[in-house]
Amino acid sequence: MSQIDTGTPDLLASFDEGVLTLTMHRPEARNALSRPMLQALQQQLVAAEFDTAVRCIVLTGSGNAFCAGGDVKSMAAGSGAAATRTIDEAIHQQRHSQRETAGRLFKMPKPTLAVLPGAAAGAGLSLALSCDLRLMASNAFMTTAFAKVGFAGDYGGTYFMTQLIGAAKARELYLLSDRVSAEEALRLGLANWVSEPEQLTERARELAQRLARGPAVAYRYMKENLNRAMAGEVDDCLDLEATHHIHCAETEDHRNAARAFVEKREPEFKGR
Fold first, then answer.
1. For residue 80, pLDDT beyond 80
2. For 135-170, what is each residue's pLDDT tens digit?
3. Is 13 exposed, middle or buried, given 0-12, 13-18 or 19+ CB atoms closer than 10 A?
4. pLDDT tens for residues 59-73?
């Protein structure tokens, strides 16, 4: 495993066997987002998108939390955006940050996995929901939290949650900001798997490596198909699927996998 210098202690990065692991690292603040953390996350995601060696991205948090969202203590102290910038400057910077973090995770042409060792709240929950898949510790929980601090919500959470579980339940969870246990998150479809805390790291490693060994070209087109299907017309989706399906048929990965299927063995994907 190799460690990557992100330029800030607030975000740790490591690479191992095709898996890039990004760890939000402010355990004393339940990994609340900081400007250096968000800037480093942007940079790492841009680099990962175009690095063919990266086959899967894991987003997680240090200690016993995933991410508490915005740093409410800093907000209460009056050190937020309005303290140093005009409202228009703050809006522009916020839009850019959201697109380059949650937006990029969602659109990333590679599988993304959020691993939740503990609470995911506010914008932290939004980042988790922007990933393709979510693995939660059994003692972790989710909460939108925004209503409790007088915010409407950010980092795409309203979009991701509505798409995952429907408008009625998403409105309930935003308006009331109740906690959602790991078991309830699994039942609703906000989580894909729940693991006992002591088994979380190993389970995450197994899932990430499985994704990293998968067909990279097919995954890229699969994600585009799925994302476009969320708002596209049926004929547009059918046409896009046809284009991507025929393109995948020309890849070395497909040919090798087809032979492996006939020979009743596991395929080996090389990403081309």
1. no
2. 999 999 999 999 988 988 999 999 999 999 999 999
3. buried
4. 999 999 999 998 766
CA distances from 138 to 119, 131, 188, 237 (A): 11, 19, 15, 37
Residue 163: both structure tokens together: 């798409």
Residue type, 147: A
pTM of the complete model: 0.91
Q: How far apart are alpha carbons 242 and 230 in whole angstroms?
A: 17
Mean pLDDT, residues 197-213 taken together: 97
Contact by Cβ (8 Å): 127, 105: yes
d(CA 214, CA 6): 27
What percent of the chain has pLDDT above 90? 74
Average pLDDT, rounded, for the chain = 92
CA-based nearest residue to 38, from 63, 7, 15: 7
What are the phi and psi torsion angles at 10 (to 5°)? -75, -15
Strand partners, 101: none
